Every structure is written in structure tokens, then in C-alpha cells.
Amino acid sequence: xxxxxxxxxxxxxxxxxxxxxxxxxxxxxxxxxxxxxxxxxxxxxxxxxxxxxxxxxxxxxxxxxxxxxxxxxxxxxxxxxxxxxxxxxxxxxxxxxxxxxxxxxxxxxxxxxxxxxxxxxxxxxxxxxxxxxxxxxxxxxxxxxxxxxxxxxxxxxxxxxxxxxxxxxxxxxxxxxxxxxxxxxxxxxxxxxxxxxxxxxxx
Amino acid sequence: xxxxxxxxxxxxxxxxxxxxxxxxxxxxxxxxxxxxxxxxxxxxxxxxxxxxxxxxxxxxxxxxxxxxxxxxxxxxxxxxxxxxxxxxxxxxxxxxxxxxxxxxxxxxxxxxxxxxxxxxxxxxxxxxxxxxxxxxxxxxxxxxxxxxxxxxxxxxxxxxxxxxxxxxxxxxxxxxxxxxxxxxxxxxxxxxxxxxxxxxxxx
Lengths: 203, 203
Hints:
four-stranded mixed sheet, Glutaredoxin, homodimer, alpha+beta
């Protein structure tokens, strides 16, 4: 198999961090998103949505969507479990993965894509008003997360999971989106520090 | 356990359709979203994001996020499998569930929430330009889906899955969002007809 990778963009990174946590090595095919290679023929033929990452299996089967690719590897190699254990544990990981993606990573990405001048060709049309509306949405969620993290070590419980990976890439993505983590969110800052200190964060 | 339900809104409906497909009965607590009951003390104490549905277990544990609630029931009662079988099958269901949610249900919901006058108190501030931008996004995805559905019966393969449930609620939601299914998308129309004909669609 091979993984078409998109460098620093949040979704390709989610899969690389996940694989690093699992200790799984997959051959990467670098795709230069800065040069718009993800909109080229090679990629579109594999993913008509022109998004990365894309996993191609040896028989040519294509898997897209970062979380779906991660789940495939979770099924192939269940340990360490990054989607939770037990019915309730799995549901709680799904709940926090979704909350972090939909209420945090997504608004951060919208602020970046609809405001940053470098995104003009990527997000057509940019709606700057929509970008601005998303900044307080991201910060509101981070305040909620801070209260949650006062009660436990990681996003979905006391064990590291894919929800934390989504949190890590979103926190890192705040910088290009020009949103600052409020310094009073001490639990979020502790969590962020712990995530950045894991070897997988370098993936 | 009990399920705090939100009537006609797409996410509460996703869980009800899922439960109907599984043949599982859960006591419902109706929450009148029209009267803004989901923003009341009772709900906020269970879900600070003020969203429905919310599942409360007998020990008081709370599960939010429709797909997380569905996964909980999938784990408790695996048959019929609505999240797929085999590593690849599960990943493909996740891929299409996500694609249908993020590229179809989400833009349809944005068009509704940012344009419809009835949503003025719900979506603050409404950004009508953003709502309009989402209509062609939803239709572009539906055209892609039509090509996919020329090759198979359901969204993620030849078996019904949670991806189809997301498709059903999104297709139904096009009406209040004032987006019309183009009549040339015959595969989508065939699929929609089949989904609406299942007894679970009445849930």
C-alpha cells in the first residue's frame, strides 16, 4: 500500500501521527499542495474531491478521509487502541473526536481558509465574514475543553486516543489561523504541552 | 437509559432511524427545539453545546453526538452491522459516512441555517453569503454521489449502512434548505426512493 501525503496540512498530519502512535510504517507519496498537485490528474483520479490524504491498497482500492484511514489501521492492528476500548469507551472517543473536529478543528480551518490571503485560490469564494465568525466559535469550544481537561488527562478519558490527535493538529493550526490560546486556559495548555512532547507529534 | 430527542432536526433523526434499523427501542424524552428547550438548564447541564440528541445511561453517563450514540448501540448489538464488516468494509462505511456528512449534510444545513428567516435566533450571526456558497457545494457532491451510485446499491457498498442514514436525512433536509435535487441525477433519485421506502424512514 501507499499513502498520498500532503505535508503540513492538518488531515494528512492526523494520519501520520496516528501511524506513529501505532508504530506502523507506510510508504508515503509526497504531494505538493503548495504547487496544487492535489488538484492534478493523478490525485483527482483517486479522489475526485481533491483532498488528502489518500490511501491506495495493493489491489488498487482507494480509501479517503483521514479518520476512515485511521480506522482501517485500527482494525488491522488493534493495539494500542486509539479508538477506545469497550462499547462506552469507543463511543466516548467517537464523541470527543467529533466534538474536537466539528467544533474546534473545523472553525480554526474556516478562519484560516476564509481570511488568509494565501488561501485565495484554495477557497473560492473566500467569505471573510464567515472566517471571522469562526474565531470565537473555536475559542468558545476551547473554554469548554479546558473545563473537561480539569477532570481528566486526555480528551476522551485517561488514555490517549485519536481525539487527542485531532486536538493536537487543531491547536497547531491556530497559529496560521491567527488565533491565540488564552493563557487562562491552563488545562488546555497542559494538555497541549503533553501532546507536543510525544514522539508522534514530530510525524 | 433515555434518549433526549429533537423531533424533525436531522441529527436526532439519524439516531432514531439507526435504532429502527437495529430494532432497538429506547425511551425518548421529547425536547421542543422550536421552543428552544435545547438551550434550557436541563439540556445544557447534560450537553453544554446545547445540541441534540443526548443519550443518558442509567448511571447518569452522558453520550452526545449522533454518530457516537449510534456506535454505542452498534457495539452493544452488532447485528445488523450498520458500520460495516471487515477492516476495509468498516473503513469504507466511515469514509462515506464522513463524505456524506461533511460534503453534503453540512452544506445543506449551512444553507438552511444562514439563509432561512426562521433560523435568525438559532444561527447568530447569520452570514447569508456563506449560506449561498454552500448550495453549489451540496449539489457538486450530489453529482459525484450519482456517479458512485451508478456502480452500487448503497452509499458505502451493496449493503445498507449508517452512511445511507446520513444521506437520507440530508436529502430530506434539502427541502427546508430550498435546494432541489436535479432530475438528471437518476441514481441519486433511485437511491433516495429506496431509502424513503424502508420502514425506518418513518422514525
